[in-house]
Amino acid sequence: MARKENIQNIARRKEQIIKAAITAFARTGLKGTSMNDIVRESGLSKGAIYWYYKSKDELISDLLKEFFDPEEIKKVGEVLVTGTALERLEKFIGYTIEEMNKMQRFRPVLQELFVIASRDQKIRKMAKRDFRVGVALLQSVIEYGVKSKEFRKVDPNMVAIAIFEIIEGTALFWSLDLMDVDFEKQMREGINLILDGIKVEK
Amino acid sequence: MARKENIQNIARRKEQIIKAAITAFARTGLKGTSMNDIVRESGLSKGAIYWYYKSKDELISDLLKEFFDPEEIKKVGEVLVTGTALERLEKFIGYTIEEMNKMQRFRPVLQELFVIASRDQKIRKMAKRDFRVGVALLQSVIEYGVKSKEFRKVDPNMVAIAIFEIIEGTALFWSLDLMDVDFEKQMREGINLILDGIKVEK
DNA sequence: ATTCATAGACCGACCGGTCGGTTTATAACG
DNA sequence: CGTTATAAACCGACCGGTCGGTCTATGAAT
Fold first, then answer.
1. Residue B165 maps to a domain
2. Could you tell me the residue range of the domain that residue B92 belongs to?
3. Is residue B173's pLDDT more than 60?
4. DSSP string covering A9-33, please?
5. CB-based contact A68:A127 (threshold 8 Å)
6. CATH number at residue A154
7. What was the pLDDT predicted at B3?
8. Strand C nucleotides, any atom under 7 Å to a protein CB
């Protein structure tokens, strides 16, 4: 027999290509980036890229998994099972801010994926699943707070979505450099505004 | 004498082209829509469109003014000078919801403009000016509420931005069909959550 | 141990087609 | 007739994708 297929190497190469693609996409947008741009950015040849991905669409499909990965947020959920509701929320917010900072450069790509999602049912479904996992996570923390009498009786789903709106809204305004204030501060204070309204006075 | 330049007619034609462009862009995106698509949608010829706009970029530039028009929001400001702070806010929210419903079909175009704005300084400046006018408006209402003792002492700028985040966040989730609840209800309740926290108890 | 055969990994010139934009022809109207 | 307005044919640049070919790791045969 001849040379064996090196699965580990395939994964490494695909990662190399995806990373180059995200960088290029962040710079010039999904449609504005040609395969030749990705070729240049990756340091590989066009033939190599088409060896691993049979089309630009397939490449983008793979890239989507990096952005809409419910598994990752589920892992966060596992950590949110100790402490008061407020402490759990603080942990969640801390994680979110950390993640946002890490992804800042690629935020325009995510925003563009939202646009595509509004036209493409398949992508919209991925975004929806991701959204639902996140909301469910926050919702469970709010529910816990209501049960432990930290929060007054509220609709946990609605509150969870509202907090998510603050998070996504802050990220949007931040990526457009609309606010003069610090992104982390604005996000924390925005969420606290909501929490102030549902906290039970001592 | 030459035929008189019919300014009214030019404006009508331009509007016809812009309207067709927005419709086409909403369907297939800015880059994904060719000039020929716009030609088809408008019912005019390519020559006609290039008679009124000398490039696709110039067309998009004109289109931007429809989406980032500070004058329009300023008009709303003029109406928000009577009643209690809460009544003024209610007026503002009502106007926002009405506007969102009207623009629903074109929301993906706006979202796409945000993406472009994150890469294009000129467009970002337009978005920023629009944002600032809106925030200033909301902020003045909050300030009024603080002065009239309806609201407790809060940072009006921060609260205004938070409300805007709820608005934009709801619009985003709505356009992606992420929420199962009604968009208007979610938006109102999200904002009320914030207001509950800053209202002075009677 | 050396040679050979095979298939995975990779390269870059090239192709058909589409794009934004231009030019040319013609109609409408003063 | 000259000007304004519109339509249609056309252009070069560029795009996604292909394809013939090269290189290299590895098992089989000698």
1. yes
2. 68-198
3. yes
4. HHHHHHHHHHHHHHHHHHHH-TTTS
5. yes
6. 1.10.357.10
7. 36
8. 5-14, 18-25, 29-30
